[in-house]
Design brief:
This protein is of the alpha/beta class. The chain contains twelve helices and 19 strands. Strands 3-2-1-4-5-6-18-19 form an eight-stranded mixed β-sheet. Strands 11-10-9-12-13-15-14 form a seven-stranded mixed β-sheet. The protein has a two-stranded antiparallel sheet with strand order 7-8. The structure holds nicotinamide-adenine-dinucleotide.
């Protein structure tokens, strides 16, 4: 069984799907790794590091697609909407494709992927169960993004983060507010704490209060209650506009007192709720920073411009996307660990074992045999339900 690792082609992408560390682990399951020349270079993994661990290097991208039974990528076509289309003619029927595919993105693109006949697995659809935890790439990347958001905030703020008692006087600590305490938000709280700032955090799901406090953050309690704030899978549910309006009103004061605001509030499959208005940004002190981790999905700040850093009356609003790619060594290592756990589920003793009884395989499978097969995705795009699934 050959697993191929093409070089990532999204502009500026520095991660790689598999790192040398997992090559011997995969070999134990009868999996050989084939890497496009230079695929890991920008993440800090030169070709020689792969060959040392037993992988093969091939000079040309098309050869990786032609020889591999399974293609692993970070950003497949779908999540790579700029250059990903070029991979479509390289995919073939019954080949497997694993990576970020943005399953709820574009119906046309998902159908285009399906039309190649490839059996594609979207890591975004990984169930959030204990058994699937080691394969949860969304959480891995969110961890990296949460960390990096704080580093960017600290680097942009014209103040020190920690309290310092010096001969030149006492420096008061920076005040950091995290809005949205999922995986990224919780990592941001931990990182901001480690850097010595005073951290407050808010989330619509009351269940996270204890998690915030255990990381040393102050949980901001707003006197409003969200209706069924959490769904069965642990995700936030969408609220009505009256709720968001009241939330903005109450959050305004906390935001005005913060030096750095990091927003990481998303509702899966929907545009991100606007929680920080232009008026709130105007109420912040000059030099303050907003780092909007939801920038790619419309942003939690009204002023956010995706991929840009703007300055509004002295307040920096940062909407950079794909932050995980800016920490490519460890982001790739974590992603590769996730994929290698998933591959070990799909390949047993060198043979493919696509067991549709397994919820992890069933839930993540996006396309197969020319069709979009994931029921939630079909429903989302209003495609008629499939009659039977093998
Ligand atoms: P996410 O990226 O979907 O959302 C980020 C956060 O934004 C969530 O905490 C959400 O409640 C919050 N949010 C949404 N709307 C908001 C609003 N209007 N105001 C304030 N906050 C708002 O989150 P995620 O990182 O994917 O995590 C979602 C949940 O899944 C968490 O409870 C997490 O612990 C859980 N999880 C479980 C597993 C597992 O069991 N294997 C793995 C990963 C995550």
């Amino acid at each position: 069984m050959i697993v191929g690792v093409p070089k990532e082609s999204f502009p500026g992408e520095r991660r790689v799907a598999l790192v040398p560390l997992v090559v011997p682990i995969l070999a134990k399951s009868g999996i050989e790794v084939l890497v496009e020349k230079g695929a890991g270079a920008e993440a800090g993994y030169p070709d020689a590091a792969y060959t040392e661990k037993g992988a093969k290097i091939v000079p040309d991208r098309a050869a990786v697609f032609a020889q591999a039974d399974i293609i692993t990528q970070v950003l497949c076509y779908g999540s790579n909407d700029r250059t990903g289309k070029a991979d479509i003619p390289l995919l073939r029927r019954n080949q497997l494709l694993i990576g970020f595919l943005r399953p709820f993105g574009s119906k046309e693109i998902v159908q285009e992927i399906a039309s190649t006949g490839v059996a594609s697995f979207s890591v975004e659809l990984m169930p959030r169960t204990t058994r699937a935890q080691s394969m949860d790439a969304l959480s891995s990347m969110a961890t990296v993004c949460g960390y990096k958001a704080v580093i960017i905030g600290a680097d942009t703020l014209p103040k020190l983060f920690p309290m310092m008692t010096t001969a030149a006087g006492t420096i008061t600590p920076a005040r950091v507010l995290i809005i949205g305490c999922g995986v990224a938000g919780l990592q941001a709280i931990a990182t901001a704490k480690r850097l010595g700032s005073v951290v407050s955090a808010y989330d619509v799901r009351p269940a996270v209060k204890e998690q915030v406090q255990s990381l040393g953050g102050r949980f901001v309690e707003l006197p409003i209650e969200a209706k069924d704030a959490q769904d069965a899978r642990g995700y936030a549910t969408a609220q009505d506009e009256a709720f968001y309006a009241r939330q903005r009103e109450l959050l305004g004061r906390v935001i005005a007192e913060s030096d750095v605001v990091i927003t990481a509030a998303v509702v899966p499959g929907r545009k991100s709720p606007v929680l920080v208005t232009a008026q709130m940004v105007q109420g912040m002190q000059p030099g303050s920073v907003v780092v909007d981790l939801a920038a790619e999905r419309g942003g939690n700040c009204e002023l956010t411009r995706s991929e840009e850093k703007i300055n509004v009356n002295g307040v920096n609003v940062i909407g950079w996307i794909n932050l995980a790619s800016t920490v490519p060594y460890h982001a790739s290592q974590m992603y590769a660990r996730n994929l290698s756990a998933f591959l070990q589920l799909l390949v047993k003793k060198g043979q493919l074992d696509v067991n549709m009884q397994d919820d992890i395989i069933r839930e993540t499978m996006l396309t197969r045999g020319g069709e979009v097969v994931q029921p939630r995705v079909r429903e989302f795009f209003q495609l008629p339900a499939l009659v039977a699934q093998s």
